[in-house]
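call fold(seq) -> tokens
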Amino acid sequence: MSNQYRHFKDSIFSQFARIGRATGSPKRLELLDLLCQAPQAVEVLAEKASLSVANASRHLSVLSAARLVEAEKQGRFVVYRIADEAVCVFLGGLRRLAEDRLAEVEQVTRRFLEGRAGMEPIDRGALLERVRKGIATVLDVRPGDEYRAGHIPGAISVPLKELEAHLKELPADREIVAYCRGPYCVLAVQAVETLNTNGFKAVRLDDGVGEWRKRGFLVEVGDATE
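ret:
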């Protein structure tokens, strides 16, 4: 292969590798996952990802250099957003590839969920149908900013941190389905444990809004339906 062709190949794959280097960190992948829920300030992202603001900023700078996220100054805060929906598609594809190729993904998940009330295998199709028909009370236990950016139609916003304060407002005679950011989000796991401990019949829907959209179902943004 002549030098000009070799140079082209080396150059183009070096550009592809920029994405690999930028996403080659568990925390940066988590930050992308959070930003696929909604645009968020650095301070908010840092708290959700259990990072210092300084570390979160450094990770976000790497993602920004690879053109995966964009930043905007809003008053005293810097708010980040996903640069393109293709980033979330890429993240979903990476997750599915890991699920298919790495047995450890299933093993880690099984060990975490094993023995937890409300986490037993359920008829996923039947649960989705109950949620779609409004037969169950659906709780979105993500923070309010993520709920407003997009949620399952009819879902009630009860952030996990506020759940115990709102227990008396929930129907005790109706199944409650809690969901958050997808199959590896733990907010819904904690919510179901809290609900079951307090006498409710609660189960976890491991779909998040991203999975809901992929199924072709409607998603509400604020008070409107898209």
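Residues 3-22 form the longest helix (20 residues).
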